Each structure stands twice: as C-alpha cells, then as structure tokens.
Amino acid sequence: MTFSFDKQIERRNTRAVKWDLVKALYGSEDVLPMWVADMDFEVPPAVKDALTERAKHGVFGYTFTDNALQDTITDWLEYKHDWKVKNTSIQYSPGVIATLYMAIQTFTDIGDKVLIQTPVYPPFYDIVKRHDRELVTNQLIVQENKYEIDFDDFESKLQQGVKAFILCNPHNPVGRVWTKAELEKIVALCKKYHVMIFADEIHADLVYQQHKHIPIAKIDEDMADQIITCMSPTKTFNLAGLQVSYWIVPDKEKRDALEKTFHKQGMHILNTMGITALDAAYNNGREWLDQLLDQLHTNIDYVDNAFANHPKVNVFHPEGTYLIWLDFRKLGLSQDELKEFLQKEAKVGLNDGASFGEEGIGFMRMNIACPLDIVKEGTTRIINALENVKKE
Hints:
By secondary structure, this protein is an alpha/beta fold. Helices cover 41% and strands 15% of the residues.
C-alpha cells in the first residue's frame, strides 16, 4: 500500500501547540511554524481506524494494560532494534520526560550530580534543576561538520562523583545516532564509575539508512540493570497528544522502586486512546513508517541542497530524528537579532538554539516532518531573507 505524505492538513483551531500558538510565540499569524517536535502528517490509517472504532464504543472507563500489549511492544523492539526484552521488564508512563522525572526522584538524592550532553533537549535541564540536583555538562564537540562526544571530558566529569547520566539517542537537537563503539565507551565508563544511565530513546525508530539505532541496554548485559530505557510510539507515529510511553528495566528491584515512585505521584493509569493507538501502530504501522522515513529523507536532502550555496548557514545533516540543526553563526547576529531576523524577515518559526544550552547560541532547530511543499516554503523564506540582507 502506498501512503501519501503531501497532503496539507489544516491544524489551526484544533488547539495545536505548533499552529495555534504562532502569534503568541512569534508575534504574527503569518509566521510559518517549523518548531515543536510533532508531525503535520496524518497517523497511519490503521491507527486512525482503531481510534475511530474505539470512539464509537462510547465508553471510556479505566483501561488496563495486559500481556498482549506487552507482546506487541516486545515484538516491535525485536523487529525494529533486534532487541529481545522480557515482558516483565516493561512498565508504562504518560511520557518519556515523566519517566525521567521519576527516575531522578527514585535513584538520586538532593545535591547529587547528574550529567547531560549539551546542546540538548531543554527539559533535560529542568529534570536536573527542578529536583535540586547539581547539573554537570559534557559539551559535544564538532569535528568535520559532525558532533562527537568528548570522552576525555566525559570521563573527567564522571570522576567528580556523578550519580546518573541522561543519554539522548538519537540526539535532539544535533541528530546524531550514536554508534556501537561510542555506546560501548559510554557504558564502560559509566560502569567503571558506578553511574546509572537514564536513556531517552524516543526517536529510536526515526533513523536513516547507513545508520542504526542500538538500545544502550543491549551493549553490556552486566550493565543493563543500571539502565532505564525510555521509549514511545509518539514521535514515530505522531501520537504525542495521546501521551503514551513505556520504560524498560530488567532489574526487578529497580523496576519496583521506580514503579513505586510513579504510584506516589498518582501516575499509574494510561490514556485509553493512547493504549489503542500504541497497539494499532506497532501491529500495523510498519509499512507506513518505511514510507515516512523515505519522505523525511527527501525533505532533509532538500534542505541540505537548498542551503548548499549559502555559506553563512551550515546544515548538520541528521542521522536520526526529523529535526535539523542549523548554524547561523556566520551571520554575526546576536541570538535576539537572529530570532528577530527569522521571525520578522523570513517569517519562519524555528526553535531557539539557545534553549538547548549556551552551546546552541547562534543555532536554530527546524522541524521538517511536514509535506515537502511546506519544507520548500520555509526554506525559501529563509533564503530570500538572506538574499535581502546581501543586497542591503
């Protein structure tokens, strides 16, 4: 079956964060939103049908998860990531960030050091700071237009008594899919210094050819019990508003401890529609996802090629995710000037690079998970604005 990803769906007036908050965030209704990480594509038909049938039932009482749903997840993990996971290792959460919050509360104490790799998804900072933990950063470094891990700095930070490391893989916003060799180094060092790993792998399914996502918990069986793996179908199948995710912990003692924290916060029941969508997506969404990845790759290539002749804008080609990290530093603008330029001159709404940490100053993040015509429009707006700057 062939799926279409060129249909432009009107999302305004649906309380869509991406579209209905444009004026509030960017000051004008005519700004094209290419920011928050959801897609402008319809979900797979099987998901839409399943949700429609569930809605027709008309009763939305408390809903439980069962072995069949866990089988669906384990089948998906084996199919997509060659990862065999026991049903008993899986528990549920309304979202990956919620799980990371619970993990910090469960396995660290006030004042403990928690490491993140910057620039990185903004909530990582909140996870640490809002729990009164000490934030430690391992800045990613750029080599040959590609972000790499500074392992000397990584180890030196772990030596300072870090209790937990929050991994982002595939990495948001820089788009790296960490290789097996890189993951092996991370695991070896965390094992050496007795550091737990909280792995945000929400973009795991969105990886392009020549790259492969490897769950970090697969790297070393002896270390697997020290890893909390967070996954979800929400990025993969555009289900973020249904708030459904799961976490994987092989060790029963740690699993029970984390589950206890969830119950303390009253977070122990999933959204009925989220369960329905997860089940349908993982069971019937494989072909749709393959075609989605082809479309996203086309969109990314378009952005790459469009900016190829603009030396003042550098594109970091993502190995995974549908997010492109754009370097505007050669324009010589302050971050406020850059934001004003893109909002007022280009009329495009991107994510502010500075929100990913000080290493993101001079950068912006673009979401290309939309029909190619929208990608073309957004890119053309930026290029035209750059051309106007040259003429002045």
